[in-house]
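Final report, Chapter 2: Outcomes

The project's central promise was a pipeline that accepts a single protein chain and returns its three-dimensional structure in a standardized token representation, suitable for archiving and comparison. That pipeline is now operational. To close this chapter, we reproduce one record exactly as it appears in the project archive, with the input sequence first and the structure output second.
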Amino acid sequence: MSDWTFFSNYGHVLVCLARNNEVRLRDVAVEVGITERAVQKIVRDMQDAGFLTINKQGRRNRYRINRRKSLRHGLESHCNVGKLLTLLTKTEKESQLTESPIAQKFRRAAPVVVGTEPDEIATRYPSAAEKAADKSSDKKSDSKKEPIDTRQQGNLF
């Protein structure tokens, strides 16, 4: 299996600078997985193209991203950098807050592991009735939950 990603090193550097505009390029290089010199070249290229401005503050640089600048490739030129960075720099909590109610309704439930022996361990997703039963049984913490037997449910393949 090859190690490819959907974004280039330019995109990765831009996301790092968007998350922290005072980050050291050495730290960006470690996070992206390239050399510091490569990060310097990428930052210089983005600065020359008008995507970044660099302001010196004391001994540190502060990077300001031009979020109104359109993406360079013809397929993405209808989007600007701001839209891309808004999508990529959201935290999990922020993305759940902006998620549509329909998407929230159909988001998959967390898997439940049943059984303790290696032969008995099975993963499945709880039904709505089981979730409601779990909520009511949380109030009655004295009763022990009995594992559900999933061995007779069969395989999909």
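Archive annotation: The mean pLDDT is 76.
This record, like all others produced under the grant, will remain available to the consortium after the project formally closes.
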